[in-house]
Amino acid sequence: MNGLAGKVAIITGAGTGIGQGIAKRLGAEGAKVIVDYVGTPDGAQQTKDAIEESGGEAEIVRGDVTRSDEMRNLVDAAWKRFGSADILVNNAGIEFRSDFWETTEDEYDRVMAVNLRGAFFLTQAFVRRLREQKKPGRIVNISSVHEDMVFPGFSTYCCSKGGMRMFMRNLAMELGPLGITVNNVAPGAIITPMNESLLKNEQQHQALLNNIPLGRMGTPEDVAGMVAFLASDDAAYVTGSTFVVDGGLMRNYKEQ
To answer: How confident is the model at residue 224 (pLDDT cuts 50, 70, 90)?
Structure first.
């Protein structure tokens, strides 16, 4: 497939998990990809290799989303390597489990810095370049079902994803006149390194599956398919929405 031929995509956290799946899919569909990573250089290389094996092009750039200078460099790298950028996928994210009354300021600051502040200022750098070039663009944020659904023990994560929902809605209004669409993809339970401990706990894993009407956890490829659509010309009239990819979890979730 070459539905994204000629497009350039910047994807954060593309060295593992959902970000890696998205990068591979967009690369396979013809996009040239800036593969951002922080702590997974081997994974970033695997992502680049997979894209090139599918006939695409990729460039690895180490960029910490909590550092605005590195985010500006990430955008600059796309223009330097590929001459432009059309698609931004804000995927990088972290979470910490703690009861609300035990949550530290450091945990709060770290989650917000990666999940919300990072997306905010990388998007700003991306939009500034688009405005300079008078170019349209696509912004896709990897949010979570927890932008709307409660998750006891993860108040910082829920706050960050709730903020991302309003960030997306506000930007859809503000950037629409510039021809820039902004949407969220909200994954449910996805098989990624972030969920490794859950997958190893048979009881917790089964309890989760009992809450998912489709009876399985999702894969990075399930999420990547939705992102590929939102990044494509088929989604030119789609903006300001969250697209849930969760096997029906939100409609059937019950705290155990």
So the answer is: very high
